[in-house]
């Protein structure tokens, strides 16, 4: 009887995770933005969650697609100006709950912030356009006034490239160990 209860609870948890998935699954990979020919090592990298604590991960990037994590979208009740919903960017890392993408606002005076993949729903206001995954920190502000300035990949403190979000209001040159990238989905 006890074993049947465990399987029932596990089945409900898996069903709950699957019900959050409102899109086709994909993996996210980098596409180097033009004009950065010396930074080819940041092109075609695959998003991976690097464990930093219980329920906590930094977003890092590996060269092999087989390491890339599976992502999906969950529609929010917030809509874009075009009437389409914004989404939570979620990942299936195994287990019974989603892992959400988070732009970690850890330093209000930084030109870029670390990106996390933590247990839970993450942040709302993600969407795809022709340049890949995008985010808005304030859905009520027009896209051209958005503080999100794109994705940055840097050789930082994990020994592999790490993902950061740039703020558009800073106009600094990237460090030599960083490159501007798009995050594009490859559907599974």
What report would you give on this structure?
Helix content is 10%, strand content 46%. It has one helix and twelve strands; from the N terminus they run αββββββββββββ. The radius of gyration is 17 Å and the shape is globular. It starts with a helix and ends with a strand. Mean pLDDT is 87; it is low at 1-16.
Gist?
This protein has 188 residues and is mainly beta.
Which key terms come to mind for this protein?
DUF7907 domain-containing protein; single chain; signal; mainly beta; 12 strands; two-stranded antiparallel ribbon; 188 residues; eight-stranded antiparallel beta sheet; DUF7907; Trefoil (Acidic Fibroblast Growth Factor, subunit A); 1 helix
Would you spell out the secondary-structure blueprint of this structure?
Blueprint: H1 2-20, E1 26-32, E2 46-53, E3 56-62, E4 70-79, E5 85-92, E6 99-103, E7 112-119, E8 126-129, E9 132-135, E10 148-155, E11 161-167, E12 178-187
Antiparallel strand pairs: 1-12, 2-3, 4-5, 5-6, 6-7, 7-11, 8-9, 10-11, 10-12
Organism: Aureobasidium pullulans (Black yeast)
Domain DUF7907: 23-186
Keywords: Signal
SSE pattern: HEEEEEEEEEEEE
User: How would you sum up the global shape?
Assistant: globular
Which consecutive residue ranges, at least 5 long each, have pLDDT under 50?
A: 1-16
Distance between the termini: 38 Å
CATH topology: Trefoil (Acidic Fibroblast Growth Factor, subunit A)
The assigned CATH architecture is Trefoil
Instruction: Provide the number of structural domains.
Output: 1
Classify the helix fraction into a percent range. Answer: 10-25%
Strand order of the largest sheet: 1-12-10-11-7-6-5-4
Task: Summarize the biggest pleated sheet.
Answer: 8 strands, antiparallel
Percent strand: over 45%
Tally of strands: 12
Task: Please identify the structural class as seen in this structure.
Answer: mainly beta
Overall mean confidence score, pLDDT: 87
Measured on Cα atoms, how large is the radius of gyration?
A: 17 Å
Reading off the top of the CATH hierarchy, the class is best stated as Mainly Beta
Q: Helix segment count? A: 1
């Amino acid at each position: 009887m006890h074993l049947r209860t465990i399987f029932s609870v596990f089945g409900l948890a898996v069903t709950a995770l699957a019900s959050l998935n409102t899109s086709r699954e994909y993996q996210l990979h980098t596409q180097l933005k033009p004009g950065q020919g010396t930074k080819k090592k940041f092109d075609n990298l695959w998003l991976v969650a690097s464990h930093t604590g219980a329920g906590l991960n930094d977003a890092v990037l590996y060269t092999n697609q087989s390491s890339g994590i599976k992502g999906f979208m969950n529609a929010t009740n917030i809509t874009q100006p075009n009437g389409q919903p914004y989404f939570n960017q979620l990942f299936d890392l195994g287990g019974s709950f989603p892992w959400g993408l988070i732009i970690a606002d850890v330093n209000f005076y930084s030109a870029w912030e670390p990106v996390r993949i933590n247990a839970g729903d993450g942040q709302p206001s993600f969407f795809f356009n022709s340049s890949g995954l995008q985010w808005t920190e304030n859905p009520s502000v027009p896209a051209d006034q958005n503080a999100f300035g794109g994705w940055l990949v840097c050789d930082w403190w994990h020994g592999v490239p790490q993902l950061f979000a740039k703020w558009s209001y800073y106009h600094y040159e990237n460090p030599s160990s960083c490159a501007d990238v798009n995050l594009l989905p490859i559907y599974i």
